[in-house]
Amino acid sequence: MKKISTGVEGLDKMLNGGLIPGRAYLVEGGPGAGKTTLAMHFLMEGVRNGEKCLYIALEEPIPSLKEDMRAFGFELDNPNLRLIDATPVGEKRSVFADILYEDFAVSFEKLTRSISEELKTESYSRIVIDPITMLKLTIKDELKYRRAFMAFLKVLANYDATVIFTSELSECDIEEYLVSGVIQLRVVEQNGKPLRGIKIRKFRGSSFDEEARPYKITDKGIVVYPRESML
Ligand SMILES: Nc1ncnc2c1ncn2[C@@H]1O[C@H](COP(=O)(O)OP(=O)(O)OP(=O)(O)O)[C@@H](O)[C@H]1O
Ligand SMILES: [Mg+2]
């Protein structure tokens, strides 16, 4: 089976070679766990291979994202990386060609439609939506959200892109059931120090390392230790 690298060597080992392309995955974690950093490893790996990549920011504005990611050596100003800032602002402004932020953020369907329009004009092989939590809040009814999310996954599946949604950590997320894989980043305190653990909760179509493994955030980004145990 064909696999693609996540851009994090240790995680690729846990995934027995990497992600299955053309599918959607969820990266879950608490604040500061490293969701955005992990997602950026994935996109920069694509950029290094000459692939077109798309990042949609729903929470962290692009200027501060660029600054934060530069600290890890990720240079986001690259013609193969399209960054779309869909974070809330006071005034209306254009996100995609003719869709204004307010429209975009209030409706999941509009997001789906605008992304599918974008995918028709450019073939992206890697897409990150960071975080999905912002859009989930736009649909209160669980059944409606489930339907909208499934419809969104179907649209994405037509374009052969590998997609990562990031999400805040919660006990039961509908998305976990619908995506092809779930990667969790957890941080616990141990002797007053943060102990970080990464765990693959689900990975359809492949075997994987079911144990949680330690990871660190360094000045080169995320480093996973696939042979070490959390104990
Ligand atoms: N050189 C470094 N060494 C160790 N930790 C670092 C270094 N640089 C940044 N960090 C930490 O790495 C984390 C980066 O987190 P990132 O933004 O990827 O998390 P996130 O899960 O997306 O958070 P949020 O929920 O706020 O969006 C931050 O907690 C930051 O303090
Ligand atoms: Mg983030």
Describe the structure.
The chain has one domain: P-loop containing nucleotide triphosphate hydrolases (Rossmann fold), CATH 3.40.50. The strands form two sheets. It has a nine-stranded mixed β-sheet with strand order 3-2-6-7-1-8-9-10-11. A two-stranded antiparallel ribbon has the order 4-5. The chain contains eight helices and eleven strands. The protein has helices at residues 9-14, 35-48, 62-70, 101-106, 108-121, 133-136, 142-157, 174-178, and strands spanning 24-29, 53-57, 81-85, 94-96, 99-100, 126-130, 162-168, 181-190, 193-203, 213-218, 221-224. The longest helix is centred in the middle third of the chain and has 16 residues, at 142-157. Helix content is 32%, strand content 28%. With 231 residues, it is of the alpha/beta class. The mean pLDDT is 90. The two termini are 32 Å apart. The structure holds adenosine-5'-triphosphate and magnesium ion (MG). The site of adenosine-5'-triphosphate (ATP) has 12 residues, from helix 2 and strand 10.
Summarize the structure.
By secondary structure, the chain is of the alpha/beta class. The protein has helices spanning about 10-15, 35-50, 60-70, 100-105, 110-120, 135, 140-155, 175-180, and strands at about 25-30, 55, 80-85, 95, 100, 125-130, 160-170, 180-190, 195-205, 215-220, 220-225.
List keywords for this structure.
231 residues; two-stranded antiparallel sheet; binds adenosine-5'-triphosphate; binds magnesium ion
